[in-house]
User: Fold this.
Amino acid sequence: MNDIFLRACRGEAVPYTPVWIMRQAGRYLKQYQKIRKKIDFLTLCKTPELAAEVTIQPVDALGVDAAILFSDILIPVEAMGMRLKFSEKKGPVLEYPIRDNASVNKLSASGLEKNLNFVMDTIKILRKELKDRVPLIGFAGAPFTMATYMIEGGTSRNFLHTTKMIFQTTDLYAALMDKVTQTVTEYLKAQIKAGAQAIQLFDTWAGILSPGDYKDYALPYVKEVIKTLKDWKGLKKIENVPIIYYVGECGGLLEEIKRGGADVIGIDWRTNIDDAIKRLGNNVSVQGNLDPCALFLPKEKIEERVKEILNRAVSARGHIFNLGHGILPETPVENVAAMVEMVHRFSRK
Ligand code: CP3
Assistant:
């Protein structure tokens, strides 16, 4: 198997820098659009054979060094008892947002593995189909980012309901976060048992918090998820499943993020990766950090930016090349394939 991605996560020597792309399965691929014409997004997530097929599409089309499970961070939120819809215009919508004790009490934090057996089935199919190719990354939303969707009812501009709950009803927020943290932990254990070979925690919105609030209201829950997984005997048996932690707009938070205990830290493009490496030290690997919009540049310009990031990241314990956030639906596929090839060629030792 091509395990270069896993080796870079652990900081071991690699023949070239591995690369994968956040949201690599999706609308910028014709093959994906073809399947989505026939089936809505949630049904696709819940149909293991098709979810496995779209997971493998970017591995075939681009030659990336890892596959990431096709699903969504809000799938376990639905399993906790919230009603989830995806609208073409607004993205995810949770109809009855969490604003009071009664709604937190109604949320279930157990029985997840059974409710989400379609995810575990997808993972099992993928491990069979990917056998000799690339490792499979499982994932979940980090507790804070999951909670923002549950409290806001969808994507938000200023996260007012979330910060109001944190500042005005701190106990309610803590009760919600305990349930979400338990859910995320159980969900990731189940993914690892089913065969996920690395895990990424997505904390897309944690960058809206000040360093002090991040430290008090987001970091403790991430730390708990990671510590529980690391102490778990099941994980030791499966031998070293690396944990990647991505925070959107992480620049102000790196010193705190480091204390979360992840093996790899994802960096967005607003911070130079060499600066991030200096601040994170040599106990972690880094992942990132090309601006997703840079894939709209002409190829010579993409080449310059790929080289720059590879050069800036030479001092890292390990580097996994990626975008600084998810790939955009309009991205030209030929530029993405060229970028993957450039990363491999320019970094080869
Ligand atoms: O990386 C991958 O290819 C794996 C699949 C994956 C999806 N969503 C598929 C998806 C992953 C890892 C996610 C994570 C996710 N989902 C995040 C964290 C990462 C990030 O991008 O910030 C968040 C915040 C979500 C919530 C979500 N899901 C939003 C806001 C949207 C709407 C916006 C959009 O991109 O369409 C989704 C829908 C979604 N998730 C799609 C896909 C392929 C598009 C659905 C479609 O086919 O119409």
